[in-house]
């Protein structure tokens, strides 16, 4: 019995290693890559996932692994055509994710599936991931002008090297979604509102009767009337408002590089809980804000920042330190937390001082102790 038992102990980690090293996840049959039947690869073989116990936390992990947006649903995998091949295996079942895993393979699951068929295939729906860029996905082909920021204003498209407007005839929310997506902004929050007459277009009216499904990557991919062929006036110019892309700020401090950390999500500013917060997360914030390294503050200075009063958007943030934006770090689903505002992250940053920061954690009743260190040179 002993030799057999020894072989078992040695072989289990090896098989687990190979399974993880060759594991991938994809969504098949949906309208875009962030929706569809869930399929996983194990050792070069693609198979489906049994939906026994499948829930939103599992979908959250799939969305995160694929670089998609928020989890929005747990549909049946049978809704997506073509259906899984009969000879394709159901590879895993009883998936039980906490919602914090970076990959589906890291969740609890059973790989020996005997009692599931393809009628029980799991599905997942995620939002498309908004690309938070400072330039359009298709450069210089669409813009929003005359509004407060690049994500709100009159829609203009570029044709024959000239910018022109879009008539609101036939315009709908799906078309607005495409514009917001193309510009790397957030969700479309308003359509059909007339533009301010002071910001009406002056050039050609290039497009009218635009008909988008909402899945296009570019407004120019949507069916429309012929370019420049319409009976519209600039009183009918289309305006779009998108939510601002992900942003962050420090509030309550003397400069933009000091204060309580807040992030913008769905057009609303909220705080970040300090659970799991450390040097790598600080590094990403410094990088995104274009500030220097964090400075150790006195406890008195920390209290001057005050406590947040709105939403707590992020909790259990985990960064590698290489991310360009805090949103690229792993974290709980937006708005999901077990914190209060006494645990809000706050910091101070400066190019001329070295630092470290110890964050307040009221649940463990630790004492805030942030001491400023000034270089000797």
TrEMBL record:
The UniProt keywords, alphabetically, are:
Disulfide bond, Glycoprotein, Repeat, Signal
User: Which InterPro entries does the UniProt record give?
Assistant: SRCR (IPR001190), SRCR-like_dom_sf (IPR036772)
Q: Does the keyword Disulfide bond apply?
A: yes
Paired cysteines (S-S): 97-107, 212-222, 319-329
Q: Which molecular function terms from Gene Ontology are attached?
A: serine-type endopeptidase activity
Gene Ontology terms: biological process: positive regulation of complement-dependent cytotoxicity; positive regulation of phagocytosis, engulfment; regulation of complement activation; response to wounding; zymogen activation
Which parts pass through the membrane?
Answer: none
Which residues constitute the signal peptide according to the record?
1-19
Q: Gene3D superfamilies attached here?
A: SRCR-like domain
CC per GO annotation: cell surface; extracellular space; plasma membrane
Q: Where is the SRCR domain?
A: 25-127, 142-243, 248-350
Q: What is this protein called?
A: CD5 molecule like
Its source organism is Phocoena sinus (Vaquita)
